[in-house]
Every structure is written in C-alpha cells, then in structure tokens.
Specification:
There is one protein chain. This protein is an alpha/beta fold and about 525 residues long. The chain has 20 helices and 17 strands. The protein has helices spanning about 5-20, 25-40, 60-75, 90-105, 115-125, 145-155, 195, 230-235, 265-275, 290-295, 320-325, 340-355, 365-370, 390-395, 400-405, 405-420, 455-465, 470-495, 500-505, 505-520; strands at about 50-55, 80, 105-110, 130, 160-165, 185-190, 205-210, 225-230, 255, 280-285, 300-305, 330-335, 360, 385, 420-425, 430, 440. β10, α10 (about 290-295) and β11 form a beta-alpha-beta unit. The longest helix has 23 residues, at about 470-495. It is elongated. The protein starts with 5 loop residues before the first helix and ends with a helix.
C-alpha cells in the first residue's frame, strides 16, 4: 500500500475527476459514507450520542457535511459548526452545504472567536466530535480562531473522529508543525499519508482506517510513488508450502561470522533464528575459544573455529580460511558480537571487498564500516545493512537527532549512493532500496527495544535470503516476520518482560500464521 504526500493524492484526485470522469461530488459522497460507516461501527446505537461536526470551508468540511447528512437521514440529529461564513463555501463543499440546509440540519456559522466562545460550551456536551476543519493540504501552523478551536476541542472528553487527517497536522511530515487535534479515530481517504504512519504525528491519529472512495486502484501504482507500507500480501509467497521432493540443500546454507569473548550470545541468537526460519544449514564461524559455548547452544548449528586475537576476537589471519568456507555458502551474515578490535576491523574490511555472495551486515560490522564506508563502493553482490539510528548516525557522521528528523530521505539517499539495501531499525522500520524505494514495516512493538533483538533479525534475514531468489522480498518478509513474532509474544508476556530469546520462541507461531494465510 502506497504512502502518499498531499501533492500525490491531489494528482490522483485530479486524474480521477478530470480524466476518468468520476465527479468530485461523487468522491465526496463516497468519503462521507465511509466515514459514517466507520463511526456507526464504533457506536452501533448512534441515536444515544450527541454529535458535533466542526467543518472548514474546503473539501474536508464538505466531507463532514456529507457525514452530517447521512447521520440526519438515519435519525441522528448532529449539529454542524462551520468555521467560516456560508457564502465563502464553494464548489462541492458548497453543494453539500446547501443540501444540508435544505433538509434541516442545524448549521452554526463560527466566523470569530467571540462566536466560538458563545458556542463552545454547547459543543463541550458532545459525546462525539467530528473534526472536518483542515484536510491534507495544510502546510503551516493553525493560527487565530483555528488554533483556539483546536486547543479547546482537545480539552473536551468527547470521542474525536478526524476526517482524512487531524486538523493541524501536515500530511507531508511526521513532525508537528503546530497545535493539532488529538483524534481517537482517523478515517483517511484513498491511501495513508506520511503523518498517519510515523510518530510524533502518528500519536495524534488514534485508530487509522483507510477508506475506499472508489478511486481506481491502478492510480496508486505509479512508479514515482516510492514510499510504501508492507502488506502481508506482498511477502506471503515466501511462506508457500514446501514441495515434497526437497532436502536441506534446497533451503540454502548460511554462514554467520559472529561472536567474541563475552558476546557469544549474539552469534547464538542469529544462528537459532536462521534455523527456525527454515534455513537448511547454518554454520557459525567464530573465534576458536568461543566455539565450545556456541556449539553447546543448539545441536543443529554447525561451527567453525577461526584464528583469534589475544583478546579472543576474530583475527585478520582468518581471512583465507573464511573465504574457503564461503565457497559453498549461499549468503553470509557479518557482525553480531564481533567487536571493533583493530585486527577484527581489518579482517572485515578485507573480507567485504572479496565476498561475492549476498551479505547481511549488522552490529559491529556496521560500526567497523563507520570508519571505512568506502568499502561499500565496490560490492560484488546484493547486500543489506541493518543499523539502528545510532549506528546509522555513525555511518553518516550525523547525530541521531538529525537521522530521526529526516530518516526517510537519509535512508533513501544512502541506499541509492552505495547500491545497498538499508534497513533502518526502530518503530516503523524502514527498508530503502538502491532504486530509491522505501518500504515501511507495520509490525512490531516497544517491547522489542531490547538487547539481542537485532541479532535475531539478522538471523531471520539471512535464513530467508538463502531460501528465496527474490532478495527484496526476503528482506521485507524478514522484517515483517520479526515484528510479527514480537506482536504475538506481547499478549503472553507483556512488553516490559520481552527479551530477544522470546522473539525466537514465538517465531514459529509467526511463521505458521503466515503459512496459513497463504492458503486463504
């Protein structure tokens, strides 16, 4: 599902109206019907509710007027507070204003703060407030009477429904630009917008419903729309039933270069995750003194002892042996728990230059690259980097605050510049491709902000990459599945108690749910 800017949504609306021939009034009618249905679904007995509709003079207000009409026609008596003078309401909104007046809907003109002060006590008695003041085109902070109304509405304990987007938010940024309505439910039209998906703006959305208003679906598939929400349907082929005539070699052999003294857990979690996701074979290459710990952790894991430094980290003397080990492998994970020891760093940089199979680079592998980003310039095969914001900030020589302030563009530009797939972990994990597309993951929860969660993700990604030919699909499936495993765990153990090992524990249930969905 595409995530659009206001300009992109306007472009779709224009094509729908002017080229396909669906009148704007029809789209407005469809929007109002869908919003009415969403409210009705929340409140089956609407006649018990006191409903106020705050309508601006534009199309957003027009949508609100259609909602008012459908409420009225079903025996509910809403009151409309028009934040304008009636004569200023034009076009499709004006048509619906005149219809509302003719059928007897109560409409109050609120053209000054003095009038608002007189009416707000009446509105304060509402049990449902429908916010139809501003639409997705807002680009500057709400001021004057609009600012006052938004602030007062937020103090009213009514259930608040936003039409398309809470008034005061800009649909094109996840940053707050000024005061905005804090909605309990937002019914957006056609497609989600950036503000619906990412915090802090997302915190004002409440429950999000994406309403179909009969815009032809193919209009959303424009290749220039490069921000997209991952849907289950996009990754479900990774979970099709296995053919009967297969063997362990069919499902790939993954090599994991991981571990150092005190950090064997990272290697273990990556290896276990890769096996649980279905990789046929998993071999962990680790400093020789770390091998016994890892070998005892799971009987199904294979291990390879590698030359180490006196600090028990991987030594650069291991290069030739690793290259030999990679000759029959289908992908490699580099980084979990390896440290940034100078000898280890030299090994990793030399290794990356010589690898010709798909790579997942995580954790200390990323920290090593932060000092040697030029290593990424001549990669021989598809590569995915999986930094959290702090690691990504080190890669770009930026602050974490800078990264979080413009993470979509930073991720897109980095992936494009270096020709890699960039997974920027966190709430709403981003996956940027070398072509400039950015995917947003909808699964996952705050409980996953725990040590080792990234190691589990690396194992999942590596395990899927060795099984599937489509590199991007494997990455998207892995990110989605990782979050889904955490979501399945939460009802059982809660957010605070979740640890990375729980993600592995519930991984099989997450996989099974997607396998079952394949048959639906």
């Amino acid at each position: 599902m595409k995530i659009l800017t206001s300009k992109q949504m306007k472009e779709i609306d224009n094509i729908t109206i002017n080229e396909i021939g669906i009148p704007g009034c029809v789209l407005m009618e469809n929007a109002g019907i869908q919003i009415y249905k969403a409210i009705k679904n929340k409140f089956p007995d609407l006649r018990k509710e006191r409903i106020s509709i705050l309508a601006g003079p534009g199309n957003n207000g027009g949508d609100g007027l259609v909602v008012a009409r459908h409420l009225f026609n079903n025996g509910i008596i809403p009151e409309v507070y028009l934040i304008s003078q009636k004569e200023k309401v034009k076009g499709d909104a004006g048509i619906n204003l005149r219809i509302a007046e003719k059928i007897g809907i109560i409409i109050h003109e609120v053209s000054s703060e003095k009038i608002w002060n007189r009416l707000k006590e009446k509105i304060s008695n509402s049990t449902i407030i429908i916010d139809a003041i501003f639409g997705t085109g807002l680009t500057r902070p709400a001021e004057g009477i609009y600012k006052r109304i938004i602030e007062d509405v937020n103090k009213i304990p009514a259930f608040k429904v936003a039409v398309d987007i809470p008034s005061g938010l800009s649909s094109d940024t996840y940053q707050l630009i000024g005061p905005c309505v804090r909605a309990d439910l937002t019914v957006t039209l056609g497609a989600p917008k950036i503000a619906h998906i990412f915090p802090p703006a997302e915190e004002y959305i409440g429950e999000l419903i994406i309403a179909d208003i009969s815009i032809p679906p193919f209009l959303f598939q424009n290749k220039n729309f490069k921000l997209e929400l991952i849907e289950k349907e996009k990754i479900i082929t990774c979970f099709r039933p296995r053919k009967k005539d297969t063997h362990k070699g069919t499902y790939g052999h993954l090599f994991i270069l991981a571990g150092s003294l005190g950090k064997t857990g990272a290697a273990i979690m990556a290896g276990k995750s890769a096996l649980k996701i279905g990789a046929g074979l998993v071999t962990i290459g680790t400093p020789e003194s770390c091998l016994p710990i890892i070998a005892r952790s799971m009987m199904e894991l294979m291990t390879e002892p590698l030359p180490e430094t006196k600090e028990k980290t991987l030594s650069d003397r291991a290069l030739k042996r690793i290259l030999v080990l990679l000759e029959n492998k289908d992908a490699v994970i580099i980084g979990p728990g390896i440290s940034t020891h100078p000898s280890t760093s030299k090994l990793i940089c030399d290794l990356i230059r010589n690898i010709n199979i798909p790579m997942v680079i995580d954790a200390d592998g990323l920290n090593i690259l932060a000092s040697n980003p030029e290593v990424l310039k001549n990669l021989k095969n598809e590569t995915v980097l999986t930094p959290h914001p702090g690691e990504f900030a080190r890669l770009l020589k930026k602050t974490t605050k800078e990264i979080l302030g413009n993470k979509i563009e930073y991720a897109r530009n980095f992936a494009n510049e270096y020709g890699v797939y960039l997974v920027l972990k966190g709430y709403r994990t981003l996956i940027a491709t070398p072509e400039g597309n950015v995917f947003v993951n909808p699964t996952g929860n705050p409980g996953m902000a725990t040590a080792g969660s990234g190691d589990v993700l690396s194992g999942i990604l590596g395990g899927l990459i060795v099984q599937h030919k489509d590199f991007l699909e494997a990455i998207l499936a892995g990110i989605y599945l990782h979050g889904l495993s955490g979501d399945i765990a939460i009802p059982k153990i809660g957010e605070r108690s979740l640890v990375a090992g729980d993600l592995i524990k519930y991984l099989s249930k997450a996989v099974k749910s997607l396998e079952e969905s394949f048959h639906e």
